[in-house]
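Hi Q.,

Before the meeting this afternoon, I wanted you to have the beta-D-glucopyranose prediction in hand. No need to reply - just skim if you have a minute. The sequence and ligand are here:
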Amino acid sequence: MKTVNAKVVDQVAIIERRVAELLGRMTLDEKIGQMSQVNASEAGAPEYLGMALRDGRIGSVLNQVDVATVNELQRISVEESRLGIPLLVGRDVIHGFKTVMPIPLGQAATWNPELVRNGARVAAIEAQAAGINWTFAPMIDIARDPRWGRIAESFGEDPYLTGRLGVAMIEGFQGDDLAGDGSIAACAKHFAGYGAAESGRDYATTNIPENELRNVYLPPFNEAVGAGVATLMASFSDLNGVPATANRFLMRDILRDEWGFTGFVVSDWESIHQIAVHGLTSGDRDSAYEAATAGIDMEMASDAYSNHLAGLVIGERIDIDTIDTAVANILRIKFRLGLFGAPYVDPDQTPAMDLEAKLRVAKQSALESMILLKNDQAALPLSIDRVDSIAVVGPLADAPYEQLGTWVFDGDPDLSITGLAGIRNLVGDSVDIRYVRAMETSRSRSTDTFSEAVEVAQGSDAVILFLGEESILSGEAHSRADISLPGAQAALVRSIRQTGKPVIAVILAGRPLTLTDIVDDVDAILFAWHPGTMGGEAIADLLFGVESPSGKLPATFPREVGQIPIYYNQKNTGKPPSPNTVTNMDDIDAHAPQTSLGMTAFHLDVAYTPLFAFGHGLSYGEFSYDNLRLSPQELRIGNSLTVHVEVANLGKMIADEVVQLYVRDLVGNVTRPVRELKGFKRVRLEPGQTVTVSFELHTDDLAFFGRDNSLMTEPGVFHLWVGGSSEASLHSEFRVVDAAH
Ligand code: BGC
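Predicted structure with the ligand bound:
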């Protein structure tokens, strides 16, 4: 009997033979057709694209989700074109299709790869039934700038967390077998560095030294390739002077030569055309040349390839091998998806998942994504037995569309359970819920209806304020320079505060916000992101203690925009600030000597610490960490150590905790971050329960790219912390010694 591996090898060989055989029969125009993806969003797509499909001039379409239309497009390609090559049908299925999960940044806050995998599976099943076989997700750009609107679509600032969750999402979309039921091809994007856009302005220039690129921005992509992601998408941005779409260093040297990627790379929307807009070329012809030779296999939306590649090959500027390689990369994925054998989709034959099961995943995901940022005097959970009336106030309490977040082309707001509905359903008749919207949108400046809100608050036992951002304020091309609560929301908080009632803020948003101006005026903050379809039920369960909050921040919350970029895994600098650093300009004496303030890396007018740190998130449980043990404490390169820690729940409620492990490499060939996440585990503890949580840490996990940009593991001393956030204080240390020692 053959082993599984031998079967896989056979399968690969069979596909390679079929790719070569098909390639051998293709004309140049048909090859270029495979490299062209066109927008098919109109209902009349089969008519206006029919001719091009018959001629084999289109390899992929995007943005058509009517299954009959998709099948007709496939039929024309398969039955009426000379070679009958089926189409890749792409769509941005980013955080759900019909059933919407929390935005990816919210999913990242779950620190739960299993849940992320399940969410992607639900999305894949729904999308496949609409004829889609390729999604443009996950986005695994490292995002250290909350002004950037697309941070919503990311897994946040940390390479390790992003890598783990990116792989989970890929596994959810692609399953064990790309050709399997309910599997669609994934696309890791945007390769690479897109999240480093200057000042967080979407599409802006990025300058990332190679060492930082390799240590911070590339690792999640490397893992995605290792996990078998079918495709990658090039970034829109200019990386160190060469737009990613024309960047051979990225697409060839790293992706193909170093990582051995065998799938294909698609440009971003018209990003080949934009190479000239960047100023690298003077027009589409040269842009097509730059992109094709850099290694962009398929062009999305624009027509530089279809207009110019043939001429470039005939004129001998581009070698036919370059074209053949690109086409082979694309055909390989079409074969792996099983499209040649089964190009059509019969929605009745695609795997079904009952609505309740899908909503359960969406709800669990929402529950675990929400973060209790603050909870003074145990203001939460609210007790149904102790309150008779609650004022529910704010523009996002009952906004079914807004809670879905960015990228919800196909999401159905009618399925949304809003916060208001969730609370009403939960408390039934036992609590009088009084709703005042108070602001038309999250951006409204009018305070006209505040008096009504204040009056209702005054007559109630507690106030739940639903604040934040509408979905349109984050996402692609939706960056903000000021990331505080928009409109008159801070004024609304202050007015409500004056009633003296307990004030609970539930914040729905697509990014970390600066909450400095309201944080002291509320008793508790539940940060809910844009939580998707089941957001309201999750919010209600958490507010009333049916479940304990368990989300942890995947991105740092700054106090002020001026602190950005602020992230936990920063470098130490030569003059690190310390807790007694002056951070109030008013405290500086007139004519104070230049050196009197400490001469360290801080701002004069704001603390050097964030408002809420990476990994932070409170609970209704009360977790203690003890008895941290490392064995061995000295290990040779090439070996592992085990970390054990006892985690106890001293509180009165069953709750999940995300146990986090950080290390610091004290001395490096290049300077190393002050802390780096190296492991995490979500555990569920009954009141009074203690568990031992263990991690295995291999010296490979400590490897980094050194001065010559090659991967290295160095001997030396490492500090290690375990706890419930990146500010964990329980620590130990270990020493790595040379293998030869
Ligand atoms: C975005 C991509 C997206 C593509 C297709 C672009 O504008 O940057 O992330 O997949 O559009 O919709």
